[in-house]
Amino acid sequence: MDIFSHSLWTGLIYRKEKKIWWPIIFSVAPDLFSNGIYVVISIFKGISFVDSTRVHLNPVGPEIIPTLYSFSHSLVFFAIAFIAVWLILKKPWWPLAAWGIHILVDIPFHSVKYFATPFLYPLSSFSIDSINWGDNNYILAINFCVLAVIYFALYITKNKRKHLVTYFNAKRKLVKR
Ligand SMILES: [Zn+2]
């Protein structure tokens, strides 16, 4: 998925979290620290990173990008990091779980041609050949519609709750008088 969808879904899941920026950062980090680097290099080199031949997606050089992608999209490395932080803090640090959520969201939306999620790296090169989100406009359209509906519904219920609280507070004041 694209980084906007990742951050919007994470924002929903962690909406009760006070420091929302930590999960948001972990939700986009797997892409920023792999393909994001490639995009920055392409911009500096003046190469188009969105060309239709998708040459940029088979980055022969710099070789490091596919390795970084495998590392940042591996549930194995995520689990090691999550457990290590858990041991250090002596409690799970949930914002970090946004990294794992990113990987789980990516698995059904990448094809072998387009960075199929190497979620078992380095234990296995197994990946699922799904429909790539970038190749199917319906996926993105449905995704953003669902997000818009949920965010709108949350906004409405939050406002309604606020109105009800002010209404009852005003009533209570009247009763006290
Ligand atoms: Zn990703």
List segments where confidence is low: pLDDT < 50 over at least 5 consecutive residues: none
Radius of gyration, taken over Cα atoms and rounded to an integer in Å: 21 Å
Average predicted local confidence, pLDDT: 87
Summed up, the domain count is 2
The chain-level structural class is mainly alpha
Spell out the helices and strands N to C: HHHHHH
The proportion of residues forming helix, as a percent range, comes to: 55-70%
Largest sheet: none
Question: Helical region count?
Answer: 6
Shape: elongated
Explain this structure to me?
This protein has 177 residues and is mainly alpha-helical. The protein folds into 2 domains: 3-135, no CATH class; 136-177. Helix content is 62%, strand content 0%. It has 6 helices and no strands. The protein has helices at 3-13, 21-45, 64-72, 75-89, 97-106, 137-176. Helix 2 packs across helix 5 (97-106). The model has no long low-confidence stretch (mean pLDDT 87). Bound molecules: zinc ion. Zinc ion is lined by residues 30-31, 73, 102, 106.
Layout of helices and strands, plus pairs?
Blueprint: H1 3-13, H2 21-45, H3 64-72, H4 75-89, H5 97-106, H6 137-176
Bound molecules: zinc ion.
Zinc ion is lined by residues 30-31, 73, 102, 106.
Keywords, please?
177 residues, 2 domains, binds zinc ion, mainly alpha
Structure at a glance:
The protein is mainly alpha-helical and 177 residues long. The chain is 62% helix and 0% strand.
